[in-house]
Amino acid sequence: MIGCILVVNQVGDAFVQKYYRDEVSTNAPEAFRYSVIAAKDTRSPIKSIAGTSFLYIQENDLYFVAVSRHNVDSIAVFELLHKLVKLLKSYFGGYIDEEVLRKNFILVYELLDEILDYGYAQITEPDALKLWVTQKGEISAEKLQKNLTKITARTTGAMPWRGDDIKYKKNEVYLDVIESVNLLMSTQGNILQADVSGKIVMKAYLTGMPECKFGINDRLLLANEAKTGKARTARANGIALEDVTLHPCVRLGKFESERTVSFVPPDGEFELMSYRITENIQLPFKVISNVKETGRNRLEAEVTVKSYYPQSLFSTHVKIVIPTPKNTAVCKCVIKGGGKAKYNSDVGGILWKISRFPGQTEAVLRASIELLASSTLEEKAWSRPPVGGWSQ
Question: Which residues are CB-contacts of 333 (< 8 A; sequence separation ≥ 6)?
């Protein structure tokens, strides 16, 4: 039960305020500005002030805030805020900022009127809302009458994410699996924490109401099969997926019983599912670093990167950040194994870029770092933050 929705910029100006219930004070934007934006130590996305809860997400330089005086389901509220951001992006070409929203105030408030009614979520699907909330002004009576049937079917039917009149000359489907490996390693080379965050993104340009299906090789069903005596040894080497989130178009019954993702897809691009993996993670890279202080204002660093994936594969656009002290003056780098490196103050260290990194290979960077000696700098020991990197 949401009392109001706010859109706040970086300086704390709530330039969009939509109130759904009288119980929320008009001083709520001011309280959010002082308690969240002005406070430097605020990290939680939920802030409670005098019995009022502020739940917010950030998009570019904007805060999207839901305010409530009830014990609301926080996950549902965050899902609604993310759907609001997605909805606005679908109307404004995939990008939103303060200038875009200010130029389209009327449209923004119309959308806020439709997605919530007295604080309760209603319609959030962009395809359904675009049938009657448009950017082109008035709709002709003939077109409005034609859309009324579609609107009713979308809002009350079983598939509000897709209409039945979609036609393409050529049917096309694109499926992308995007995974991110998160790793924390100790100075002795031991793995402290490792997990994989993944998502499946689909682009569907299909005619009519197609039924799509694909299978997943995982171990989520093994426990249920073992209870019924139907355990299959073929799945013993599967991948254990955790925190699986599915798009509403997926038929949950078939997913739980048959381990197949069966669905009628929305038109265009959407995220079909997301997941995490925390077991049996094979690391694609291993980074070994060694930093020595050779003088009061001088450091010597050596970073070795090894790839552990097969030789038949390769990574592209590999970037490795080697942190350096804030008073770094000069960096001289020597690379063995490929890539280019230079000091970049924006990332706070040496940025090493490797355009193509084959499997089962090794690259070494040696850097000589000279520090700026100044009495105005704080005499504080360097904390030596960990080396970071990413690739495609």
Answer: 341, 342, 350, 352, 365, 366, 367
